[in-house]
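Help! Submission page says 'invalid entity' but I think these are all valid:
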Amino acid sequence: MDTRDLARRGAQAARELLSRPSSVKDEALGAIARRLEAEAGEIVEANRADLAEAERAGLPAPLQKRLRFDRAKLAESLAGLRALRSLPDPAGRILEARKLDEGLVLRRVSCPIGLIGMIFESRPDALVQMACLAAKSGNAVILKGGREAAATNRALAAAIAAAGVEAGLPESWLSLLETREEVGALLELDEYVDLLIPRGSKEFVRSIMEKSRIPVMGHSDGVCHVYVHEDADPETAVRVAVDSKTQYPAACNAAEVLLVHSSFARRSSGPDAPTGLERLTRALEAAGVAIETSPPDWSVEYLDLRMAVKTVDSLDEAIAHINRHGSGHTDAIVAAGRAAAERFMNEVDSASVYWNASTRFADGYRYGLGAEVGISTGKLHARGPVGLEGLVTYKWKLAGSGQAVADYASGRRAFVHENLEGEVGSYYAES
Amino acid sequence: MDTRDLARRGAQAARELLSRPSSVKDEALGAIARRLEAEAGEIVEANRADLAEAERAGLPAPLQKRLRFDRAKLAESLAGLRALRSLPDPAGRILEARKLDEGLVLRRVSCPIGLIGMIFESRPDALVQMACLAAKSGNAVILKGGREAAATNRALAAAIAAAGVEAGLPESWLSLLETREEVGALLELDEYVDLLIPRGSKEFVRSIMEKSRIPVMGHSDGVCHVYVHEDADPETAVRVAVDSKTQYPAACNAAEVLLVHSSFARRSSGPDAPTGLERLTRALEAAGVAIETSPPDWSVEYLDLRMAVKTVDSLDEAIAHINRHGSGHTDAIVAAGRAAAERFMNEVDSASVYWNASTRFADGYRYGLGAEVGISTGKLHARGPVGLEGLVTYKWKLAGSGQAVADYASGRRAFVHENLEGEVGSYYAES
């Protein structure tokens, strides 16, 4: 099918989804789990074909590993799916309720965003997670996975789409694109697509941000910092810096730059003891990290066992450096006193700001969001790890009994504006 | 000053604002009120110059009226400013709090967006309101008002900027652009400007949306509908339709299209009694409205005493018509039964959806938001009337004691993910 038709049908499905109750969405997740189990044989078979092709094409071993989707991976996906099903519905919640006048009640109610384009590379398990996050939040979705996983994605998407429809989701709630040309066409379809969520290399994400007028949620760069303040405990500083850099260097939340206050850098516990800076760099080098002290560019995302290190003379200099060279993703301060930590956390303009903890905690699962579609470095709508809550918006519902504004404008009636706190947090359907 | 320098300084001010306490922001509003009162003579004088120039240039009378800023208008602005000051600070609030592990607490905290470009036409009182909304929410702002109000805007902006700085806001928290060329330059400065809020004609707003890569909050079109369902009470239908169209036809929330279910349209209380459709059209015509039954385009915003009227055969047809031709602003159903009203309010994909109430209620003041910067038809971040809450975003603050992800990845430690409900809604500074 033509991409425009596909998007038009997806937008139609998104509207039909707006009135599906939570029970249908949860039943869809149940049906998807059953169908994936029933079709495990075909799915694993399709994945074997992708793997064979990847080997023939000489795909690097780490990418081949990411591509693998066997019964163990399927079991992991199913466990995630069940956990997702048990979360409360993010849509249909009353966020605000106000009596404007007798018989005139305004409610701000969470609702799905609409049709979301989710574009990601390689890993087939991402397809299962993103499709199920969409179903749970009531959004229609157009997926595009990595080319290497084409057969696996096709098998997974067909099973998930059919199971959803069987459980009562509208036709076309999920569709799959297969070619770059289709993605190019999708980026133009701002009349149908409400949001794009790209995941992959920074070049990939940046190119999508540049090409489309559709709002994009995600991040291209993850230039994360650890700043060691003058009063930092040296052991804490070492633990946070080493974990931030080395626990998984290829992740977007791994730290790339270590900023060290000059007093801390010089300080040592005795004439022969190492300085603060030496303790840090030795610990990093012992963990296999190559230190860069004068990189040509302070905004480079190494994604590797390399780290840029800089001495700064003040908290202000650290904050200014991060706001100038960072990517607004995740930045940490190591400090003993609360005052400096609070200033850092307030003034560093990033989605996640930490005090005495590794930047690697920036993740939807670790944050307790259940699952994530990605990490957003944009400042509007959703910021940082994005779970179900980031996949909903809201609308204002006003229920009256024939009220006209003329009566209020003329002064015949006056607004009461009484907040109905008791309704907030409950589901609209129960109000 | 060069627009780029101005934006760079504004972005710097936005970062300094991130750590200003509520007391400074409220004191700024107090200082602004005092300064505007003290400089009332100069401001009114400047406005007289603008009015004289407008008359010389032959500006239409309604525009001249909007341009007027005399002592009475100033008093209104000051009353609004005091009401705004009394509202709670939208920033610094804990939106979510979770203990991830012993000594590792994650909080999602509301915070200002940063630097906002607010671009509006004519009315000088809009400048006061937008500047004060920015100060209250902790955002830096670059304002551009209508050319006709140049002298008034200059006097108002100078007084407001200086009073804010005197009360402790950072230098450059507010600046004023005066030329179209400067606005053109501002639209390119996405490295400094976080958000644009344009208010004015739809051509004006649309051109800004098309020209800039900076996120835009607002609306270009207000094609609002009233749908009269088959079971509607005829009197309610007349009251809602007439008020929606005629209470202030030039407003964006005035209805442009009336959809009438064919059963309602045909129904009458007796052989000589008028049909439902006749009652509606006669009432509208009596209020001076010209009826269009076959407009060449169903998406036209008349902003005048003209209304397009269409008969539809079902609720589905009404919803489909609105989603296709509407602008996602505000749409109302008149219906006796709740089931049809709920389907309408769920499936019409607009920011505000009403049951038995006039579309003219879509307004920040009427909604009880205190003040508004505009009405957003976008589906992300803020939707519908946008008050202080729409001018903040959030960041994730994690406070630990040296935790490393390696301990959780290896299974030596496990997350507890305990929600700290008691903290939610309180201010972070008090936690």
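Support: the input was valid. A stray whitespace character was the problem, and the output above is from the cleaned input. Chain A has two domains: 3-95+111-217+383-391, 224-369.
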